[in-house]
Input
Amino acid sequence: MPVSPALAPPQGDIWTPHAVRIVDVVQDTDDTRTYHVAFDDARQAARYAFRPGQFNMLYVPGAGEAAISISSRSRSGSPLLHTIRTVGNVTGALERMRVGDTFGLRGPFGSCWPLEELRGQHIIFITGGIGLAPLRPAIYHVLDHREDYGDVALLYGARTPDGLLYEGEYRDWIADGLRVQVTVDRADPRWAGYVGVVTLLLDRLPLSDPANTHVLCCGPEVMMHYTALSAFRQRIPAQNVWISMERNMNCAIGLCGHCQFGPSFLCKDGPVLRYDRVAPFLPVRGL
Amino acid sequence: MATRPRLAVFKFASCDGCQLSLLDAEDELLEFAGAVEIAYFLEATSAIAPGPYDIGLVEGSITTAHDAQRIQDIRAQCRTLITIGACATSGGIQALRNWADTDEFLQAVYASPQYISTLATSTAIADHVRVDFELRGCPINQFQLLEVVGALLQGRTPRVARHAVCLDCKRNGTVCVAVAQGLACLGPITQSGCGALCPGCDRGCYGCFGPALQANPRSLSDQYLATGHGPAQLLPLLRNYNAAATAFREESERIERLAGAGD
Amino acid sequence: MTADPGLIPIGGERRIPSDRLQDLIDLLRQDDYSVVGPTVDQEAIVYDEVTSVDQLPRGWTDEQGPGTYRLARREDDALFGYVVGPHSWKKYLFPPLSTLSAADRTEQGWEMRRVEEAPPKYAFLGVRACELAAIAVQDRVFAGGPYVDPIYSGRRQSAFLIAVNCTQAASTCFCTSMRTGPRCCTGFDLALTELPGEFVIEVGSDRGGTLLARLTTDACSARTLAAAEAARQQAVDQITRRMDTTDIRNVLLTQLEHPRWQETGERCLSCTNCTMVCPTCFCSTVEEVADLKTEHVERQRRWDSCFNPEFSYVHGGLVRNDIRSRYRQWLTHKLASWQDQFGTSGCVGCGRCITWCPVGIDLTEEVAALREKPACP
Output
């Protein structure tokens, strides 16, 4: 059940990664960095295109591959960015890399946020921590086509103020017409904003037209579950809630069986799924 | 050349087979020796460099009070401690003493038992000190050892599978000896690592790599008991190189109780 | 319209005496096929390369039940007088181990390249109806979606399929429930029906018809055709195992908390045997194979299984962290969510998972139990 016409799958060899080179690395938080990478092969660079919500398989020979969402503008010509938190072997190996180093990339893969279908609608982006990374291309898409959408808001939570991603960009986003609300679990003395879980922001958000409001959510499964409940309390219809899910993506093309979640292959039917289509499976332990 | 990690290999109660399997890795040994500085490895060289060491490989189980102290000193000297082989990871075949009277053994085996000082049990290294990685097998698989050391050098998690031997049999095209021949095979509850050697030679698995992750020995032995294999056959199968590994030990003790109840 | 003398049309049937089956093998080998067929090895009838009819399991049969398989002597000289064994054709089309790509460290950084494989050209001799169905299922998995696996499709496209109609059934067979057999109806180049001393050969494709026209064959008498039909009917009559597939997708996907999962989870060894012998199971893991200094690295795909606890590993732990949830994943995938994913059941009713489960767990029994409403807590 693809949610949106994804791009045509990458042509040619589905298994061999393309070499990319690190152009720049920005340290976002203690354990998170944003890598700007460029293809070594100019033809591949010209060919490459993705839709917001999709991911790439990043490959460090010896360490393996990991599915990493794309966090840059999808507009052609934009630098290709991945925001990566160190959690395992591949991300650990990437952490040790420097500008000029190379690694492999296959992609893009997976479904995307239904931004074309949502023209003329109101959108709430809701996420926490690193979950902002896969939403950022969607935020940029909406802001780049601001007139196509109604009210748009970002509700974002982090454990601490130090854990907020892309903090330097919020001012521009607000200027471009995005309502931004940020909350943290634990404040520090400098923090003057909200404290508490991010779903509380959704509970309190005044909505002019819930029936035409859509929620795009990325976070831990339990957070997405509570977000959906909050959305329903706000009278947002179940079919207007979209989530991005994560499992062990090994092949990224639905051939290896690893990322199954009920009837879905999260690598190709997901990661972006309509909430009501997977809701029966979300509470099942060990699925 | 940049300083290479210093490696030490220590031996406790064991047959030396696991250390030898490292020396057996002929093609890779030179590469291995180039990647680390072998500082302490009595099986390979009499040249001894003092600690501390970056990587300590420990073979063998703890069977004496002296060894119980020595492993503490070794732990203190090694940044990363890896135990290798069934003895070090589960107590080895010598853990059979855990169910027997050690004094009786001493009387039977030694002409002058008064000179022998030993514990009543044989236990895994991890029962005494913190262990960073346990590499199973009797003996270990040399390629798994190279993988563990390689992963350590590259700062990643070692890729050592913990699934059952059956997966390897099937990848090899080996026909299941339990189903097709009615042999009592421990493959379904034993961790991969040997490449499914014995079933490939028409023999049941002896469990050399210890229990697989989340193994279910009870169901397997119930099946074997129901299909003509007696406790007298299953007990020694479970009480073998990894007799004291928890899943095998608990199941062998259950079978012993079943057999006792049946007497 | 005159018939092309170089082509026996699809549906056409010819007869050859059993002692001329070697001609078929020779012809295929002449056309550069590696002929793979049944042979006795390791106390079972397995699939392996054959060059001679003498390697086929002449006079052997198999006796199967939950958790047990035994070779037995037949009273005749039948070459295909058995059912299905531990191997399936998937090991040739989806090999247990394949290299996908390689990477080399250079002065300029990593260079990654495809590892080319010239696909081997196989002729499969003795493909049963359930196995034809299984190949059709894997065609959908590996070549029916947006991403086509080059290894599978390369091998599949060149494979020549010689089916054999079953003339007997094992106690574990339930192809009639899955509507996949025992009659070979589609998906083959040639299909044999074995009779005492002779074979009826049916053409299933132009490629098959062309090959058969090069073989010396006779016309089939009405009596021979009737005998072949009776032999095939014998297999149908012998099938006793049933699985009720009515609305099975919804039945299973709405019973995810049924107590039966726990009960079966206590019996199941999570040993992976059922998935490995299953002719449609396709799970795999891609692993790195590197030298100690990580200068040359290959990516290798190996058969894997949803019963391998680490198969569901995500950073932080195992998603399916007990045998209950792994068994549930396998059965619901095979019989239910497979339909969402590939528009077909993942089960072809071959019964291998029943026979080769070391503790004899029988999925038809499981489905029947899951159809029973659980007792109220």
